[in-house]
Amino acid sequence: MTTIAARFALKNIRANRLVNIPFVISNGIMFLLYNVMVSLQSNQYVLTRHKDLITFIQYGSWLILILAGVFVLYSNRFLMSRRKQELALYSILGLEKRHIRRILFIELLILFALMTIISTIGGFIFGKLIFAGLNELLHDSGVKLMNYPFSAQAFLMTAGFELAFFFVLFVINCSKIRSKAPLALLTGEKKGEKEPRSNWLLLVIGLAALSYGYYQAMHVEGLLSAISKIVFAVLAVALATYCLFISFSVIYLKYRRKRKSYYKARNFLNISGLLYRMKSHAVGLASMAIMACGVILTLSTVFVMYSNMEKTVDGLLHNRYYELYSIQNTEQSPSTDELQQWAGEVEEKARQTTEAYTKVKDGISITQLTSAVLYSSQEIKYVSRKEKDLMNPKDGFKTGFAVLGSLDEYNRYFGTDVKLSQGQALIYSNRDSVSNIKSLKIGDKTYQLSKGKTMVSSNFNVDYIFLVLPNQKTMLEVSDLLQAPDGMGMGTITNSYYAWDAADQSEALNRAVKSMTHDNFVAVNETEARNEVYSLNGGFLFLGLVVGLVFLIGTVLVTYYKQVNEAYEDREKYQIMKQVGLPDALIRRTAASQIVWLFFAPLAVAIVHCLAAGKIMSNILILFGVSNMTYYMIRLGIVTGIFALVYLLIFFLTSRIYYRIVR
């Protein structure tokens, strides 16, 4: 019996190749990506040279595994839905359920064996390309392909999860056989469909959730506000998408049915067909819209980060080759004596550590005071710990940081000779609109502003305003104004650092500078700092590319199965329309109209969602040094256009399969 079951299984796989081939390829690619991620997180080269990247890779591997499970279950559900009559015939022809289970077991075993081959061989070959590309993102020129060996651990983990999914699907498929009688399976598709009901409750919930999500996305001011709102906005929009596809589409089509134009032949067939299709495909269409939105937002973010990476790196690092930091946290602003003492300690530490290797040349001591503030285009004010709206400030204020510096240090650092009188200051911000402000109120004083440059160190990728004041005394006075009078303020961060050029940039000096990082001191070597920035940004870029690729695979998979499923459902209906005498041209136009509507509705919804998310995404990108919303929106438009072309290509390919099945 095993030999006969194997023959049945091979015959079934060939007969259902239109759905089995995409099942193997798409899920094989998903497990291929998981194989690569596990290989990378256990790769000795990555662990040695880019250990900060491991966290991103771990997040990516779990995300891929979860989505792989979702796609495997989705595609298996479709496969089994197409085989109801076939399984019923097996029972009617005399096969027992244990025989059918054996056939299903062999079929799944063959399919998962092919998936394992793809994930193992493809994972090793494609993994080398990803490994080389990853190191290119991180600007690591010393990498060789031999640094990416075959990972037995990755193979075993991938094969183990594939085996686990194999048994889960086998149990699910066996339960479908056991739960229904053969006659029920055979006649399941022959039952007449009831007209879908107008669900007004879901419509109200969908509109409310959409309004809430869009409002949250469009009313963000600054990074902190964006971070606090993005999760709720995403969940609300996702809920709204499902509710509106299920309810609004049916209500709208029923409204169209009441118009006189409905009784024209083409409209009658088109609207009636769409009405019944939405009953079974609304959830799938909503899923397509969400995944398409995920692809566009993820890839546009990756595009922005990549195109802005060099600018980000140059903007975050100072012109000096070495820097030594000392950071002090105080409840209130420090005194002048304390500032001088901390600055002296930092300079002395730098000179003592490096004098054995090189002569310290052109060293500059810099002191900056940092406070969390609420700011607008007219005023900066303190933030109290009692402030309820720290994450969502009111009255046009935004949350950020004010960084204060003195003019003499500014002139020494940039080699300038700027003059400031009392009541004047230089301003710079990573928000272009703030950098151009001409006057600003702080406490009971108003300062006249001119645009300056920044000396803010590399740990600021949030909203900040850098103010250069006439002298250190004024700097301390302004710092006092930014402290809450009730003693419940956020405190002051004093950053004292010493920056210098070195005549001899030797490895010994680099090691000496690196050894200074302990206790209250943080040493920065420009090369090391640059590598860390590349590692952080490259890690997000890599994760974004992987997530974008996974969503793209999911979009193609859902689209393909939806088209094939609709084709099998519509084949008999179109044969009936031919038999009752409807012209072939009218049938083709009706089919084309419905396919276009169902195919491009998710894309249109995804584009609207992406446009609504433009402001909140541009605020999130401040983390990576991108503060210009126009810069992001232009790249969002480019990615959307490219994705629309890819989506159009998918439409043409799947439409050909649809028409081939229907005819």
Radius of gyration: 32 Å
Number of separate helices: 20
Within the largest sheet, what's the order of strands?
2-3-6-7-5-8-4
Helix amount, in percent? 55-70%
* C-alpha geometry: elongated
Largest sheet: 7 strands, mixed, barrel
Low-confidence stretches: none
**Average pLDDT, to the nearest integer?**
76
> Structural class per helix/strand content?
alpha+beta
Describe the structure.
With about 675 residues, the chain is of the alpha+beta class. The protein is about 65% helix and about 10% strand. The chain has helices at about 1-15, 15-40, 45-50, 55-80, 85-90, 95-135, 150-180, 180-185, 200-220, 225-255, 265-315, 335-355, 405-415, 430-435, 470-480, 505-515, 525-580, 585-610, 615-620, 630-660; strands at about 320-330, 360-375, 380, 400-405, 425-430, 440, 445-450, 465-470, 490-500, 520-525. The chain has a seven-stranded mixed barrel with strand order 2-3-6-7-5-8-4, surrounded by four helices. Strand 2 (about 360-375) and strand 3 form a beta hairpin. The chain starts with a helix and ends with a helix. The mean pLDDT is about 75.
Key terms:
single chain; alpha+beta; 10 strands
List the helices and strands and how they pair.
Blueprint: H1 2-15, H2 17-41, H3 44-49, H4 54-81, H5 84-92, H6 97-137, H7 152-179, H8 182-187, H9 200-218, H10 223-257, H11 265-316, E1 322-330, H12 336-354, E2 360-375, E3 379-382, E4 398-406, H13 407-414, E5 424-429, H14 432-435, E6 439-442, E7 445-451, E8 464-469, H15 472-481, E9 492-502, H16 507-515, E10 521-525, H17 526-579, H18 584-612, H19 614-620, H20 629-662
Parallel strand pairs: 3-6, 4-8, 5-7
Antiparallel strand pairs: 1-9, 1-10, 2-3, 2-4, 2-9, 5-8, 6-7
Helix pairs in contact: 1-6, 2-4, 2-6, 2-7, 2-17, 4-17, 6-7, 9-10, 10-11, 10-19, 11-17, 11-18, 11-20, 17-18, 17-20, 18-20, 19-20
